[in-house]
Fold each of these.
Amino acid sequence: MAYEPPVTDYDKIVENCTCAFCGSNCDDVDILVKDNHVVGVRHACRLGASKIMEDEDQRLTVPMIRDENGELVEVDWDTALDKAAELIAGAVRPVFYGWSETSIEAMKPGLELTELVGAVIDNQATICHGPTVQAVQNVGYPLMTLGEVKNRADMVVYTGSNPMNAHPRHLARYTTFPKGFFRKRGRFDRTLVTWDPKYSDTAKLSDIWVPFEENGDYAFCNAIRAVLKGKELKQDVISGIPKEDIVALTEKMKNTQFGALFFGLGLTHTLSKQRNIDIAIQLVQDLNKYTKWVLLPMRGHFNVNGFNIFMSYEMGFPYGVDFSRGYPRYMIGETTTIDLLNRKECDVFMVIAADPGAHFPGGALAHLADIPVIQIDIHWGPSTELADVVLPGTFIGVETAGTSYRMDSVPIFMKKAIDPPETCREDEWIVNELLKRVTKLKEASK
Amino acid sequence: MKQITLTPIKFSSIALEFDELIPDEIYGWSKEDFEKYEVPVGNSRFPLTDYYDIEVEGEAQSPEEVKMIIDGDAGRVKYIGCKMDAGEIVVNGDADLHAGAEMEGGSLTVNGNAESYCGREMKGGEITIKGNVREYAGTSYIGEWRGMSGGKLTIHGNAGKQLADAMSGGEIHVMGNCDILAGIHMTKGFIQIDGDVTRWPGGQMKNGAIVINGRLERLLEGFELDAIVTDPEVEGRQFTGKYIKYTGDIGVNGKGTLLLNAEKNRHHL
């Protein structure tokens, strides 16, 4: 890696900003500003810093509408908003997807708009931690704050996730390396365990690596639970792990003072989906008969958890909420975005602060190419290629202040460091404008 | 006896919702009433006559005297027979999500395949699926810990993943194969699977019984071998032949019964 000299040419430092990348929401980031541009970022990891620094690259700056030749042409805000409102007001099965990279303040009018038109509102949980949320509904949520882990945990387990690559400061800031009140020596006072079929970068760093076979998570957790209940294991090898190792690991887990289990999509998206999380939560409940154990999903986007909390609080359901009959309904496989697209049900799709073009399966994208798509985003991406109306928003946490929820459900106010480009509008303003215009159209059609 | 026949004339990719068209609601309806009726589609309602030719024959004084036939593919018609209490519904084709969900009585026959959530939270009555069912047949609402509590669900084909999640009563008979985690979180009731099962039946089951007449690939550690039994009687049903009897899931101190056909499951002994 080439040496980069420190940035010294800047006008001011905006201290304690919140990183708008992953669910760790590191709120100790300093942004160096010169002429209303970000010229440097301190304390953030490379992922977070590159997102904040390279924001100007491929930035969407003006509203656009796709013309009859299939080209996106620049228009004024009124034309673009009217076109979007017209599409939404005339839809029979609209889906409003995204929301995980915007603020809670923008979600509020978004939910009002959803209720008004009888749409489906959904976020990225539908393709990531959705099974986690389902399991939490089934068997509870033994969670904690990351501060507790920092100060108390002497055993940290990561399964189905690789924070060294995906949440780079998670170990350094919250779980493994920091010196805590009861863990004065930091890393030396903690045992780091990784359960993962892959020898990931986190596994390389761990004291114990448990490489269970792919799709073996459910049977592995079931075996630990059986050992905790005093059963002698019958099979010699369970999910690719010798039974002696499972017994030894269980003993270690029983004899910690404070254990924390973190899991990622490697657990939520293997064969038994939400049942993996279901049994992991119950395993944590069992361990609490002996000592203190807690569990937390490694949420991806900085506000993906915020949407789930916001929706649960407002509507009682965490994601994939359907208002088509006037009241909220929630059913995995029926009211979730991918299923609605795969079944070719959705007829107008609005995406805000997300990139389905890059993340959705081919069948879903094929349908997106056939229907009108409205995009509210800050960057030109694969979704822009599918979009018929493009509304450029602003960057929460850098250009606009807003509220987000960290992965452990702690709300964090993200301040702004620079002013947004003059031609862009805040997400909250855009969604409010759409709400006003759709309300007017609905009233006119009565 | 009143017979209502709906013949499809137009396909809608946005699913129709038939939860209002159950015998309990429509036994007094004339043909004109059906023609006036608007069916929920997405966030709107459109005339039922846009999608179906409707024929009504005979009279009914109560829901029990109603037979409704959907004479064609209903692969995009959700909630067929949802919450029905009496009468009969026959689908001559596939059925979409939630067929027979929360059903309390009467009968539903699907002469085709059924999508996911068939017989969800069923309380009574009888559902027969002549084809296959997808995931979560006879299951609970997402997050609910009480699933199917009564009635009988018969599947002539194969069943998908997580059959009868949190089942607390009733009976399910799968004549074909079954995917992972049948009877997960089960607390009561009876499941019979005649075909092969991939993995982990009865995960975290507390009580109830599962009988597998085919081959089971993988069994969970949470099940303790009890004995090899001959011609067992389970919940009042007699089975012939040798079966391996397990109790589990001990992870939840479960007292559920899992019976595997001994001939086909020698690899577990």
Amino acid sequence: MISEHLPALQVVVPLLGAVVCAFFTRGDRAWFVALVVSLAMPFIAFGLLLKVLHGGPISYALGGWAPPFGIEYRVDILNAYVLVLVSVIGAVIMPYAKRSVEHEIEADKQAWFYTIYLLCLCGLLGIAITGDAFNAFVFMEVSSLATYALIAMGRDRRALLAAYQYLIMGTIGATFYVIGVGLLYSMTGTLNLADMANRIAGIENSRAVLAALAFLTVGISLKLALFPLHVWLPNAYAYAPSMATVFLSATATKVAVYLLLRYFFTVFGVTVIYADLPISEIFLLLSLAAMFGASIVAVFQQNVKRMLAYSSVAQIGYITLGIAIANKTGLTGGIVHLFNHALMKAALFMAIGAIFYRIGSVKIDDLAGIGKRMPMTAGAFVVAGLSLIGVPGTVGFISKWYLGLGAFQQGWWWLVMLIVLSSVISIIYVGRVVEVIWFRDVAPASRRAKDPPLSMLLPMLLLTAATIYFGFDTVLTAGIAELAAEWLLAGVR
Amino acid sequence: MISTAPFLIFFAGALLAGVTRGLARSVLMVALPIVGAFNLYAMGEGVHLQLPILDYELTIVRADRLSMLFGYLFHLAAFLGIIFSLHLKDTLQHVSGLIYAGSALGAVFAGDLITLFVFWELMAVSSVFLILARGTERSYGASMRYLLVQVLSGVILLSGVLVHAYQSGGIAFNAIGLNGLAGWLIFLAFGIKCCFPFLHNWLTDAYPEATPTGTVFLSAFTTKVAVYALARGYAGTELLVYIGATMAMFPIFFAVIENDLRRVLAYSLINQVGFMVCGIGIGTALAVNGAIAHAFNDVVFKGLLFMTMGAVLMRTGKINGSELGGLYKSMPFTAGFCIVGAASISAFPLFSGFVSKSMVMVAALEEGHPLVWLALLFASAGVFHHAGIKIPFFAFFSHDSGIRVKEAPRNMLIAMGLAAAICIFNGSYPWALYSMLPYPVDYAPYTWAHILTQCQLLFFSALAFCWLKLTGLYPPELSGINIDAEWSYRKALPAIARWIVSVGGAIRLNALTRMQRRLERFLGQIYRHHGPEGTLARTWPTGSMAFWTTLLLCAYLLVYFF
């Protein structure tokens, strides 16, 4: 039956789609293939999620080779959630992609753009779904190489430098990752993550395993842009094509966070992470540095895309803060923020992408008064921006609520104050843009602008509405995140 | 019967008002509070709307006697305010006024603290436009200060709610009491909105700077929501008795010397709220009834007074007592309504203030607070003085300023007339109001003792005014800005700073410049590291990126190993 092969389909369909796209020369046909593939992904992901919720983790032996020797695809509550996140974002942004890509990418490269995009999607879904350490590395490389190419397609000449820097940094990260995996393999003799978790028991404190953990931590931290390894991110997001920025900001770092959670909690286990090693303290420090450092940088940015990129670094700080808080509520906050941040940041980048589509600039001065010309777009920006601040009634509040509550339960009063304080900084950088786009006189650059075509507007408004909707109905987001957090902390191996 | 959450009607109305124009909008806006009141009637008491969110069950609408009374009151206030502002063409003011009224309704029907917080902030954000819409530089400054304080109050409320939820595990909005950090934080948040002494500046700062119609809205909702919240959460807290008494007294001095007549009313608003706070603090059935009844009456007569002053301001463009006078010739109806409002606020028998204010005072005596009773008595005399005599006297009589204008527009006259009628009705037939109060009322306002006491008070107060005026001892109306507790930050701090500078001038390196230099250096550092060219913001060379990554790896290895 086809439902048994859902795990394989989740990865194979985009891969095949990429191959098909490569045969087209016309962008719109490639777009159509990518659209169909992207729209199919959420169905598979939700199917998997439902199966996991009802029947527990799914194990799928790829090619019929039984684990631990063959490659195992393993879906549990945590990665089913990540799969849903990535595939939903991938699907929602595809209608948006057409006009934006036509506008920003040269005609003969559009088909390639969709090819690479599908490869990237395939890689990200692959990292999330696989239960094999080395297979994850392969998918990490697939997605990373695709990402470098996506970024390099940006119109701005600085995109090339950004892509090159990310190439270097990403390769270092991947190398560290594979060194870590190699060390683990040498100690445990397996590459299957579940198997590895069993065999690691008893040798957790050996030098080689600890070194492996260090390599994995740094390697994955690079991918998820944890402060101070975030330096590749702002330029990459700022100069990549709008569509690529939307997709990457919403999914790429999230998948890396997932991988970190996977290693920390299911391979090494709660005791190693929290009791034996000071990971909680380190992550606390780095998260706070990200929340404040990157936020303050965002305040001074003139390029709105780059500002949002720095805000992403800060928001990743909230996610890793959930790991640092080290109790169920805090971890729930971190995991739910994966989803919530994806929603709002995608909406924000879409809005700024739509503005770029109309006026060809993302400089804050050129955006003056654009709210009067593009009210829907600017309205979406404001709502998603409020969510970024964490105003009640938006998803941002839900995340911060859980984080704050988790900090309370830990007895960390000061941390609650710091979370609130960092939100104040986000009020400044969001407020600065809101002030310019709504309350200034219309800039000459945007005198003729109007809201983008419906194909761009609707996905943007959909995500914006979702930031409000999931601010009230938290069954799907926080409910599943809570289950996942519980499951991770129970030390299920 | 079909009913819905009261605030939804107003929010929907605000949406519709945003897209309609002219007559359609007028009809819509006038119909809105009427529909709302019917909805309230159909809804009845009980818990009506619950929404599960996170781990909590939000009670969006919880109606009991207390919230119902405020619900009807706010519908009435919105009705009067809407009629009063019908002549406006300003969509922004209409829409924000409706959202503001709806948020106030949401707040009084909130059954849990989180819902309360949401509406608390919505009120702040929606009402600020009523001040901004004035369009002057001063109103811009005042509105920003106003917003800052209001949002601060909301943030304090939220932190209190968080602590409360964490400590007690519940978010239901019932009696809270002053125990523990949570109680104090929430108390402080309520206190800011309620204008506790030293926390009151936002009101006297912002309300007089709002538009003529905006102030009418503002005076009705924000402080009354705070009174409601105190009555719900802190009834019987003794501290409130003394806070209330202070609030009733201190504004008198400022009101007497203030020149801007709407600012005089703002002070007297604090003074009236003082009576309510005091009643809530006493906490007996009579006192709380009195406080709530007084809130009801205050909304109407204070609204009426602000309306008359708004009409004067709109017609003449002036509001300072020293520049007005003799207006009764050109605005006779407004002058008449103003006198009714003044009589009500001064608690003349047969006017509405009389039947509610005395409840609080009697309760103060009964509960053994003779000093508080004296304070309230003094405050009553003061009210008569500054609100009862000063407002109508300087605006409409006094020396003729020579200003000749048209009478207020018809819609304003209708609103003022309705308010005046309610004042007289409530004063002459208080039992309708009494029957709505949270506790059964066993109180007779019209005893000889009450009437005589009050008349003595009023007559001697009037005598004092006349004597002062005739002997020329009355403080002249100066066209200046009076500063009260703002003194601390508008005068004292700069003065101290100057003193430090003058002392430090001799020593050269004084603390202030050092602090200033340190602050500059601190900001410079932030800018250096975070600004566009800062370490954290500029594009790093690829090599140093790789170097730092390696360094971090070494750090991790060291930490993990040891």
